[in-house]
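Subject: sequence -> structure tokens, single chain

Hey, anyone have a minute? Need the predicted structure for the following. Not urgent.
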Amino acid sequence: MIRLPRFTYVAARSVAEAADHLAASGGRAMLIAGGTDLLPNMKRRQQVPEVVIGLRGVREMAGIRNGEGFRIGAMPTLTDVVRDECVRAAAPGLWQAAGFVATPHLRNMATIGGNLCLDTRCTYYDQSEEWRRAIGYCMKKDGTTCWVATSSPKCLAVSSTDTAPMLQALGARVRLVSASGERDLAVADLFANDGMAYLTRRPDEILTEVVVPDLTGWRSAYWKLRRRGSFDFPVASAAIAVKLSKGDVVEEARIVLGAVASRPQSAPAAEAVLRGHTLTDELIAQAADLAYPLGKPMDNTDFELVWRKKMIRPLVTYALKDVRGDETKALRLRAVLR
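Reply:
Had a minute. Here:
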């Protein structure tokens, strides 16, 4: 049995209280929501906070509220998101992304805020402490070498969150709160392409809320590649959001690739080719070709990197056909079983 390290647990009752505890900790504290990411990391000694600040009792961060668009507190579980009919109707891509995370048991615990801030993953990092010690550790924790590419000056651990690419494609924003104030940040600006410093959220800040804009006229879809179709982290994904005008002409488009870098990757050239046109098979193929070069997976997770890269085209293609309104149930089943 792998045991947790010793730590002090503090149950915060408000955002202000949690922020004060973070500020007073001097960088020795971490936040816990559902714990599905942090606790396994602590058992493997990848993260060893002296203080763990629980957010489960913070009511300000609960619930999903509608208005112009909708607001999702950081603490609703992924199951809460999947069960919300307003989310399913307005943002089917987000509904799909949340529903594809792990298993029902984990979705019952994991929160949307936690999935946004999910630690980056790597074959050389996600191992027991003894395994990592045997290879001299890695750059991300206790070592100096990135074993994915030994000459790399930075860590190449991969972003494996499902909801972040989709929320980025939907133009969502997050609210970050600290003892010194708060700030509003686009989801696209929450991430950096660095496996270690992958979040621009400061250590003293709490992600309290996700704000999704009015999605009238928008269609969205999320497609994901993983080894086991009912459980695993993504090893490549495509999040698509398209706004259609009369005649189903693309007015605006956002294409975001997940799990191919240390942050979600936008595909501006592929987005641009869609604007002003209808989603024909030929146009969809052209957009998929333009998105393909941006997928540059490294040998840091499941499947061969060549296979992961090869799957970028079909993932983008399937997602665009999904937003076009094609019947894609059979395609999804094939993608799960292949």
